[in-house]
Amino acid sequence: MAEHILFLTGKLAEKPLRQVLAGMAPEFRFTVHELGLSVAALMTADMIRRRLKDTFGADRVIVPGRCQGDLGRLSADLRLTVERGPDELRDLPEFFGKKSKKPLLDRYDLRIFAEITDAPRMEVDSILRLARDYRHDGADVIDLGCLPETAFDHMEQAITALKEEGFLVSVDSLESQYLLRGGRAGADFLLSLDEHSLWISDAVASTPVLIPARHKDLDSLDRAIAGMKARGRKFLVDPILDPIHFGFADSLVRYHETRRRHPDVEMLMGVGNLTELTHADTAGMNAMLLGICSELGVRAILATQVSKHACKAVREADLARRILFAAREMDSLPKLINDGLMALHERKPFPYTQEELKEFWQAVRDPSFRIQISPEGINIYNRDGFHSATDPFELYPLLGVEHDGGHAFYLGVELARAQIAWQLGKRYNQDEPLDWGCAYESAAAIVDPHVYKPAGTTLKKQGS
Question: What's the pTM value of the predicted model, to 2 decimals?
Fold first, then answer.
């Protein structure tokens, strides 16, 4: 027999809920029960406990997504599983169709090297603080950048301090003296060696990252690879990613050709030449670049956060690698897995049309304002009227709150949020901050393991 689900709702949402469920043609039986309140979002676990007298023979109960309280305790009291549905009832089809297939983003197979570009100019304590921030955002290796013609007298001290806190460390320089010093101080990786500097690998235990001796010269990279294989040493290979209009497309071809020539070598891509040198939001760039890495089996990137617009590059790369790993494991497109990289826009920003909101308004009998957005603009309504505009300043004279400073302030904040959401095409929920995905640390994605968990998870396959 098909599962029987009890949906609890409020007066305003009862009719739309029945319509959505009927349109789903669900594989389960359902009962819709209005719990005796106008707004479903105001439902609480205690209210359900007091008011629900019959569970109608249901196998489980679904309550509105904004229902507050301890559902675990309520489940025990009712002897039924009680769970939250989506915040908007129009999302129910996706809730039932996709929820069970959504993977945990707790695995990945790509390492993030996060470069501290000004390390020679920073005190050791400052290096440690920044390294901790990078680790929190998902970095696996802290890369100490060496600046041209700039002394780095405290390199050894910095490496020791980082190693004592459990960091993997790389040293990034084209000067042999710094690479040797870094290797002797215990650096795990050295960026970068070419066919003429392989002798450094004979003097230290660090894993080298190999680059062409001359830019674009893959034959010299082949010789460097052969030299390291002859030594029986681990290494990574970086054919060098170039900026747009300075060889970007050709550099992608080099990565592809390197993988063709060397199917089994570990590769690294320095993504900063795109994220730092392109004035566009970096989340999409990181998703695209890590998609290329996923297809080519590139299992390490070097990320930088120098430009202010690239200040979340490590966090974005961390989420991107998890999404892409999950998509590859499922042999699927990187869609409908996680929305954390869509900071500006959303897949379904407007759950209701203005006409549907006006139907809700007809049932409102109290003075409390409801604010919702639709494709037409911002909508605010209570028992006294329904008003719409694209500019909150047009709405203020219509609301009658001129002499209530607190209420006016609250409505100003909420209408401003609604305007931003409408302009960008984001989901707006009254009394909740806008969700900026992984661009903002307080996003729900940070704490929901189904969405995003940057710390405490594991690298599935350790790279060289």
Answer: 0.80
